[in-house]
Write a structure and sequence with these properties.
With 62 residues, this protein is mostly helical. Helix content is 71%, strand content 0%.
Length: 62
């Protein structure tokens, strides 16, 4: 459970901190992942595409 303390009635700042903490915890991406079923073959293809993309980024940096 993510908790944020509100200091001096600064609700907007606390809400901003809460959103950042939730995003870093990975909850939104997990929800997006479980929204619909993807077939194993499609999942493998997407992972392979992502690996290729990451390899190109690494190669460009070097």
């Amino acid at each position: 459970m993510t908790k944020v303390v509100v200091n001096k009635g600064d609700v907007d700042g606390a809400l901003r901190k809460f959103k950042v903490k939730v995003a870093r915890s990975g909850v939104p991406s997990e929800l997006k992942k479980h929204k619909c079923y993807t077939k194993p073959g499609v999942k493998r293809r997407e992972e392979k595409k992502e690996q290729i993309r990451n390899a190109r980024k690494r190669k460009r940096r070097d």
